[in-house]
Structure formats: structure tokens, C-alpha cells
Design a protein that fits this description.
- The chain is of the alpha+beta class.
- The strands form 6 sheets. Strands 1, 2, 3, 4, 5 and 6 form a 6-stranded antiparallel β-sheet that branches.
- The radius of gyration is 38 Å and the shape is elongated.
- Bound molecules: adenosine-5'-triphosphate (ATP).
Length: 625
């Protein structure tokens, strides 16, 4: 017996008999059993091993495979899946079918069995697409090395653009779109020369004609290409940007291929996946909804070209460069303002106290009437404050079509991020801010504004306002110490960076409301503002929800809302959105007050505790696109 086993080992390729290996194993077991009795060392272990059921099963499989190799079976039919389908139909139509028929029906319906039958048919039909053309017998010595590339299209675009050399008429792959079909194949590269598409020579053709040939092919498409000899080595660095404007490739006559372009809206965060081309970058919109990138104009291209070509909406310069309201509007507003100040001066003076909110001896700074009227007034007239707080960072961010951003997660030991609320006058910015602070004054606090007006008897410096001389105030303006400031009735009012910093350094979350054109002043490395835009609901809902509310305008204190107020809010909101949308980290529609307040609380928590996209300059002060 032992001799028999050795013979098998020495000649591993010889075939085993009908009972084959299993028989040998049985003999071995018998041998071992005999050895167990005389108590030979290790025989016990070997005996249990050879008796193991898994080894027996494995050997059965092995024998089956051996038999299969010997018989080299061919499929009896090549339409097993069709047949199984027919069987299913037949069984279903049986009036009263047996349990066996039902079981067969269940088995045949199982997806893995259907897949198996379909695979069987593919093999049986020898359906091994694509059929490559035969290699020519004799190749001339000077023939360029060509590559045949076959791609299965499955209705998706190829993901590559082509260009024509105007002198030679040769067609080249201009670019391969990141994540597209050609890119995923790894077989086509920018610079490869296309010789044939589906057997058609393409030399001398217009790129559009080549595309037509390509588009006609269903299923597989075959390229004969002369590969580029030296593929450029790209050291791509990860780059994320926030779009500062809208872009629509369909409206851009200069894009090399509009279908390969990617549209985006201001505020979208884009991942730049390819900057090989200095003019046309490839990007994906985050969060990654598609695996395939699209073409977008590079910063250089946008800076260098006339903007009206690129933007679906005309570019809106910043308030620093151009005032927000037209001259006509300004004159109109100023006229109203003067008239009203005259009529209502007394009312405003006495109303100052009503708005100075305090609960349990905690003052809610920055809600004073004069301060708010000053801000509203400065918003409607030429805005001087932003100009002073608009150093190069602001200027460049607004002139740059993309702002580089990075993912930032506040370290628990860092100060909290400033929360800046923005919204049309009357939409409820102050109401929401006040409610948030009142929810937990130990956590949330406003910044104490500065003023040059004289303190009233009950007022304390540093509580309602920081009372300063005009000289000190001017000096602070000169040194860019204000986030925003303005003048009201001959007195200056402003919110300083120091006031915000004091709150943050005390470990609290500073919540300010700012005019939209001061947004860049708070988007700094130091304050790391999280900008929340308070949006009005649709006009009808605005009317319904504000039925019992009162508005304070430039010349009326707490009067019921009128229809023209709602229209003004809507119009103003539209203007703010068209100019500043790209800076909003979060948008809250202030419809139901309680609901909006809860949304605000959640957003503020997220801003502090969850990772957010922030300008790269906050983290790397030198970052600029
Ligand atoms: N969702 C809401 N439902 C009903 N009333 C609201 C809502 N939000 C705000 N209001 C009310 O609307 C009025 C105007 O709100 P608020 O004073 O907060 O405006 P604002 O946006 O701060 O404008 P401004 O900066 O001009 O003072 C207030 O009386 C406020 O209570």
C-alpha cells in the first residue's frame, strides 16, 4: 500500500482511477488504524486528520475536477437561460402543479442561478467580444508603434476631447477627463495620436466628424492610436476652492467642449483634480456626486479674459469698488431720511431705552436703537466703513473667481468662531440674535459697540457702549479697528474687532449682525467668522407670519408691517443674495420664529464642533490662487 502512495506522489500528473484518491485515502486510513493499535507515535493525529470531513469533501471536489478535465465537457446547448425562462412560463401556466414543479420554479427564479445560466450561455456561444483585426503578416520597419484600444461605451460619453493639428491635419487626444471612461481604461492619454476610429482613418477629418464616427458606435468603440512618446509627469496637488461666481459652460463660447464643461454656482465647493492645462482645469463639485470631472476655466483664464464671456450673470463688483445703490436710489433715500429725522427725532430718542434689552442684569449689547439706525442708514447710503476694513485680502477675494478653501475643524482649545448674521433689514436678524443670546447668555454674547455720543445717566461705559471721544474713534477707523461703523445724527457708532475679540477671549460665542458689505471684515484668520444668512420666506408666508409683528423703520418706531415693507425685504434680500451668496456658510429661512431660532442654534453648534470649509488663508496665511 505504501508503495502505491509513493507512486502517486512521484508521478503527480498521472490520473487517478474511478475511486481515485478517495480509495487511496481509505487505504491510508486502514494502514493508520493498524498502526494506532501497536501505538506508533503520531499515528493517532494522522488518523483523525485523514478522517476529517472537510478533507473528505475537498477530495470529492478534487475528483470531480479530475473527471471534468478527463472528459473535457462541451455545453449541450447554448441557450440555457432562454430555456429556463421558457420553463418558468410553462410552470406558471400549469393548472395545478406538483411540489416538485414549484421547487423547480423557485430554483430557476433565483438571480444567482439565472446569472450562472447566462454565463454558461456566453461561454457556450464563445461570445468573447471584441474581435480584434488580424495582425498584418509583414510590418514595415518604419511603422510607428500603434495601440489598439477597445472600450465598451455603455451609453456613457468617452470622457476625452480631441484636437486637430492645423498643419498636419492629424487628430490628437487633447485631454482625458478625470474619472471618465477613457481615464478609467488607462489606455488613452492626452497627446496620443488617433489614427483610426472603428476602422475609419481619421487623418484630415474635422474633429466634429471624428466625434460623429465615434458617436455612431454602439457598445464597443475601437481606436487605433500612436501613443505619445513621453507622457508629462504631473505632480497634482490637492486643491479645493469655493466658487465666487456662477459659471455655465453652455454660455461660454470659448470652452473647448461645452459638453465636457461643468456648471457651478457661487458658493459651491469644487475639488480641482487636474491643473495640467493652464487655461482649463478639471474639477468635481463637492460633495462628490459624480465620479467624472468637468472642465472649468482656470483662475488665469478668468482673470485674463473679459468677464462677460464667462459668467452667466454679470460680475458684481464689491462695495469698495462701487457703491451698492444707484445714485438715484441714494438721493431718494437720503431725502426720506432727512424728512423723517425731522419728524421723529423725539420718538427715536425716547425709543433708545426700549430696545436696550437686559435680562437678570445681563445686558444684550449691540441692540441699541441708534446703533441699528446708524447701520441701516449707512447701508442705504454710500458705505464708508467697508472701505477702511477692506485691505488687500478683501479686494483680491472678490476679484478672484475662486477662493482656496481647506477643511477646518476647530480645536477644543481654540477660541470659538464668530457668528455673523446677515439679512435684509426687517427680516428678523436682530430678533433671532436676541433670542439666541437669551437662550444662554453664559455661552452667547454680542459685541459692545463704540460710540462718540455722550453717555446717558444710567449707562455704563463698556456695557451699553464703549463711550469714546471722536479723536479716539477716528484713530480706530484709521487703524482699521472697526468691522463696520457709521454716523447717525452727528454721532459715530461702530463695532470694533477688539469688542468681538473680548467676547471670544472670554470663552464665549460672539454673535454679531453685520451689513453684508462688512462680510469680508469678519472672514479673517482671527475671527474665523461663520456667516449665517437670514432669508425671508416667500412673500405670502412673510405676510402671514408677520401679521402681529411690528417693524422699526428709519422714521417709525414699532408700527405694524405694511405690504411695501415685505416687498422691500424681498427686494433687498434678492440684492444681498446676488452679491454675497458665495460667502454664506449657512442659510436659514425665517418663517416660523421658533423654528428659525432652533435652526440657528443647531447651525451655531455645527460651526463650532463640525469640520467646515474655510478660506485657506486662515490656516496658511500665504495661500492665494
Ligand atoms: N419669523 C418671524 N415671525 C414673526 N415676526 C418676526 C419674525 N422674525 C422677526 N419678526 C419680527 O419682525 C420685526 C423685525 O425684526 P428685527 O427687528 O429682528 O429685524 P432686523 O432684521 O434686525 O432689521 P433691522 O436690522 O432693520 O432692525 C420684529 O418685530 C420681530 O419681532
Amino acid at each position: 500500500m505504501r508503495q502505491a502512495v509513493e507512486a502517486q506522489v512521484l508521478s503527480p500528473h498521472c490520473e487517478l482511477g474511478e475511486h481515485g484518491l478517495r480509495q487511496i485515502l481509505t487505504d491510508v486510513i486502514e494502514e493508520v488504524r493498524k498502526s494506532v493499535n501497536p501505538d506508533i507515535d503520531g499515528a493517532d493525529i494522522l488518523h483523525s486528520l485523514l478522517n476529517a470531513s472537510w478533507l473528505q469533501s475537498l477530495l470529492k471536489v478534487y475528483e470531480c475536477l479530475q473527471r471534468y478535465l478527463r472528459n473535457s465537457p462541451t455545453p449541450a446547448l447554448d441557450y440555457a437561460s432562454g430555456l429556463s425562462l421558457q420553463l418558468l412560463i410553462d410552470i406558471r401556466s400549469l393548472p395545478g402543479c406538483s411540489e416538485d414543479a414549484k421547487e423547480l420554479y423557485r430554483l430557476l427564479r433565483q438571480p444567482h442561478l439565472q446569472a450562472l445560466l447566462s454565463a454558461h450561455d456566453t461561454v457556450a456561444q464563445k461570445d468573447y467580444e471584441p474581435v480584434l483585426p488580424p495582425m498584418p503578416e509583414e510590418l514595415p520597419d518604419d511603422e510607428e508603434a500603434t495601440r489598439i484600444v477597445c472600450l465598451v461605451k455603455n451609453k456613457q460619453p468617452l470622457g476625452a476631447t480631441i484636437k486637430r493639428n492645423e498643419i498636419s491635419g492629424e487628430i490628437f487626444i487633447a485631454r482625458v477627463i478625470h474619472g471618465g471612461l477613457a481615464d478609467r481604461s488607462g489606455l488613452l492619454h492626452a497627446g496620443d495620436r488617433i489614427v483610426e476610429v472603428n476602422g475609419f482613418p481619421v487623418d484630415g477629418m474635422e474633429p466634429e466628424q471624428v466625434i460623429q464616427v465615434q458617436a455612431r458606435s454602439q457598445g464597443t468603440i475601437m481606436f487605433k492610436v500612436v501613443p505619445i512618446t513621453e507622457r508629462p509627469v504631473h505632480s497634482q496637488t490637492m486643491l479645493y476652492v469655493r466658487a465666487m461666481a456662477d459659471y455655465s459652460p453652455q454660455q461660454d463660447p470659448a470652452i473647448p467642449c461645452a459638453d465636457a464643461g461643468m456648471s457651478f454656482r457661487k458658493g459651491d465647493v469644487l475639488e480641482i483634480v487636474d491643473q495640467t492645462d493652464a487655461l482649463w482645469w478639471q474639477a468635481k463639485k463637492l460633495p462628490n456626486s459624480t465620479a467624472c470631472a468637468g472642465l472649468i476655466p482656470s483662475t488665469n483664464l478668468l482673470k485674463r479674459s473679459a468677464r462677460e464671456f464667462w459668467w452667466s450673470q454679470p460680475y458684481q463688483p464689491h462695495a469698495c469698488i462701487q457703491t451698492l445703490s444707484t445714485v438715484e436710489e441714494e438721493e431718494d433715500l437720503m431725502a426720506i431720511d432727512e424728512k423723517c429725522v425731522e419728524a421723529d427725532e423725539e420718538a427715536f430718542e425716547s425709543a433708545e431705552d426700549d430696545l436696550s434689552s437686559h435680562t437678570d442684569s445681563i445686558y444684550l449689547a449691540g441692540f441699541r436703537r441708534s446703533m441699528r439706525l446708524c447701520r441701516r442708514r449707512s447701508h442705504s447710503t454710500t458705505q464708508p466703513s467697508c472701505h477702511t476694513r477692506c485691505p488687500s485680502s478683501c479686494y483680491s477675494a472678490l476679484n478672484s473667481p475662486y477662493e482656496e478653501v481647506v477643511r477646518y475643524q476647530r480645536h477644543p482649545q481654540d477660541t470659538q468662531r464668530l457668528i455673523a448674521l446677515i439679512g435684509a433689514s426687517g427680516v428678523g436678524v436682530n430678533e433671532l440674535r436676541r433670542r439666541l443670546i437669551e437662550l444662554n447668555p453664559n455661552v452667547f454674547q454680542g459685541a459692545v459697540p463704540h460710540t462718540t455720543r455722550a453717555p446717558k445717566g444710567y449707562e455704563e461705559c463698556g456695557r451699553e457702549y464703549h463711550f469714546t471721544s471722536r479723536e479716539v474713534f477716528d484713530n480706530m477707523v484709521y487703524n482699521n479697528r472697526f468691522l463696520e461703523y457709521g454716523e447717525y445724527k452727528g454721532n459715530l457708532y461702530g463695532t470694533s474687532i477688539e469688542s468681538a475679540r473680548d467676547v471670544l477671549n472670554a470663552g464665549k460665542i460672539c454673535v454679531v449682525d453685520i451689513e453684508p458689505n462688512a462680510v469680508q471684515a469678519v472672514r479673517t484668520h482671527e475671527l474665523r467668522a461663520y456667516v449665517i444668512y437670514i432669508k425671508p420666506p416667500p412673500l405670502q408666508r412673510l405676510r402671514e407670519t408677520r401679521q402681529l409683528s411690528h417693524i422699526t423703520t428709519n422714521y417709525y418706531v414699532n408700527r405694524p408691517f405694511k405690504d411695501e415693507d415685505f416687498q422691500e425685504i424681498e427686494e433687498s434680500a434678492r440684492k444681498i443674495e446676488s452679491q454675497y451668496l458665495q460667502f454664506f456658510d449657512h442659510v436659514i429661512v425665517n418663517e416660523e420664529l421658533q423654528d428659525a431660532c432652533m435652526q440657528l442654534l443647531t447651525a451655531v453648534r455645527k460651526a463650532q464642533d463640525e469640520p467646515q470649509w474655510v478660506p485657506a488663508t486662515w490656516i496658511r496665511p500665504t495661500a492665494e490662487l
